[in-house]
Amino acid sequence: MENLLEVKNLKTSFFSDGKETPAVDGVSFELKKGETLGIVGESGSGKSVTSLSILQLIQKPHGKIVNGEILFKSQNLLELNDKQIRKIRGKHISMIFQEPMTSLNPVFTVGNQIMEVMTLHHGVSMREAKVQAINMLELVGIPSPEKRFMQYPHQLSGGMRQRVMIAMALACNPDLLIADEPTTALDVTIQAQILELMKNLKKQFDTSILLITHDLGVVSEAADNVAVMYLGRIVEYTDVDTFFEEPKHPYSQGLLKSIPSLSNRVERLTPIQGQVPHPSAITQGCRFAGRCEHVHDMCIREEPPLMSISQHQIRCWMYSESWNDRDKEDTAHGREVAAGRESSKVVHH
Amino acid sequence: MNGSVGISQETVTVSSIEKQTWRNNASWKRFKKNKLALFGAFILLFLLFVAAISPLVAPYDPYVSNVNELGGYDVLAPPSSEHLLGTDSLGRDMLSRIIYGGRVSLSVAFVAVMIATVTGIILGVIAGYYGKWVDTLIMRITDVVICFPVLFLAITVATILKPSLFNVMIIIGLVSWTTMTRLVRGEVLKLREMEYIEAAKAMGQRNSIIIFRHILPNILAPIVVQATLQTAEAILTESALSFLGVGVQQPVPSWGNMLNEATSIMVLQFKPWVWAPAGFAILLTILSINFVGDGLRDAMDPKVKN
């Protein structure tokens, strides 16, 4: 099947005081029609910046897409002018945000705001838009939609508002839905409901979803493929079953180990050591080296490329041929160096 | 909801929603609780009403000197049953001049504030929303205008433009847009980071629509409050300019140029009816406006809960 979205070598940087800080660095992935790709990572890994880059919503004076291509239906979005990209936004690619509490305008009724998208892109009459908007509200599982249509955002609960956001996002039947942590701000029961809703709507509308999250539970629930991001790089990219059965990158392994499990009782969870360094503190070598338990001299010398191994694409020297030739003593040395770097990074904060 | 039951249910819900939703309803309730603000609003409405129908309520023509039974001009006559507030140094009825003067002073203030508010909103929104060098340029110009001493600037401009009713409005508008600009810019900056603005962009909305639909309605409350308070300031500035003789010119009455009579020590000491009513009218109006402004601020502040 043809790719709906192809991101190639995307690099988005933020500039302050003439200094460049890359938030997303050389990210490539693809998304087929009707597929869901989960982008996972800690705060600061660049996952949100990636999604904002696709719609070119990066704050202009500081943030800039430096390099790369974003092919949507074989058309490079980065070559479009403002007017053309506005036609794509909301109509072909729409977005759901993290905070349902603040992503609706408090002074208009929710119905009015859903109608706004419809009249904007489809040029339907107000009367028709109203009928469609009420249908959308019903579709996203809002009870008595005629009543809710006339209510203001503050009269709705968080879950309801997120449903309204989904209704707005799907109002124009987009090909791609970018969901930036859609369930993070909701409580767990509502999370499950919203995920279920998104899965059903995805089937119904045949929409592709780019699911940005830090919650691996959400990924296992909803995604077909997973891309793990760390410090602006994709470190592991695979399908969801392989990812959970056999994570390869030490970072992915660490993420999975730090989730409490119902079946295996353990006294303590194993967290990943240290914290994500600031992007400005990136040096040559593997970006995860400072926190990696398998760190080796070569990890610090040079950054591994994204390598394809069976189902995985992975950025780690452990899966290269040269890993077997490594010197044992070097490992200890490497860890020392890495630890030194880590502490200096903390000072940077 | 379906069938015949649905219709009746729907009408019930509609009315109950309208009752509880209208945000201003809550604001109005809060405003009502503030007795001073309510009093101010009442006085202000009364003054506006009198100003609007002044030809009907004024007992005399404010431009004509009155002649007494001896055939001379009735100059500086103390209050009597004939002239309730006496007459001025040219024998014109004070009450009529106060009423007509209110008309002039209030309209000068309102037009000036309108000019200042519109200018302030336009510049503030542009500076706050577009940022970068546009922001820097607008804010530096604002800083420069703030640095001018208002009265001296107004006097200078008035001398160049020749004092007239229309020019007074423009002058006051030109020196008072800065506060509004700063206020609007700050509010826009705060709002620009809100997720619903980002959502509107992600929806493919144009900047102009985002400004008019998503930003302006959300900063209306501080704008209204600021404009109200600025009206009081504009009345004061008008009075000051007219008092100094560069504002509204005789024979057109304004509260400010009526105070001008008090420059004569004789009038100031022995004929208080010539200047006191005008001063009192200014005092009352400004006090009322400030009460209303404070009341509005408290009532429309979304952070205040009932």
UniProtKB/TrEMBL annotation, chain A:
Pfam families: ABC_tran, oligo_HPY. Its main location: membrane. One of its GO terms (cellular component) is plasma membrane. It is found in: Cell membrane. NCBIfam families: oligo_HPY (TIGR01727). Transmembrane segments: none annotated. This is Oligopeptide transport ATP-binding protein OppD. One of its GO terms (molecular function) is ATP hydrolysis activity. It is a peripheral membrane protein. CDD domains: ABC_NikE_OppD_transporters (cd03257). The gene is oppD_6. It comes from Pseudoneobacillus rhizosphaerae.
From TrEMBL, chain B:
It comes from the Bacteria. The keyword Ribonucleoprotein does not apply. One of its GO terms (cellular component) is plasma membrane. CDD domains: TM_PBP2. Keywords: Cell membrane, Membrane, Transmembrane, Transmembrane helix, Transport. It holds the Pfam family BPD_transp_1. SUPFAM superfamilies: MetI-like (SSF161098). Residues 102-293 form the ABC transmembrane type-1 domain. GO terms for biological process: transmembrane transport. InterPro entries: BP-dependent_transpt_permease (IPR050366), MetI-like (IPR000515), MetI-like_sf (IPR035906), Oligopeptide_permease_AppC (IPR053523), OppC_N (IPR025966). It is a multi-pass membrane protein. The chain crosses the membrane at residues 36-58, 104-130, 137-158, 164-184, 273-293. It is found in: Cell membrane. PROSITE patterns: ABC_TM1 (PS50928). Its main location: membrane. Belongs to the binding-protein-dependent transport system permease family. This is Glutathione transport system permease protein GsiD. It comes from Pseudoneobacillus rhizosphaerae. The gene is gsiD_3.
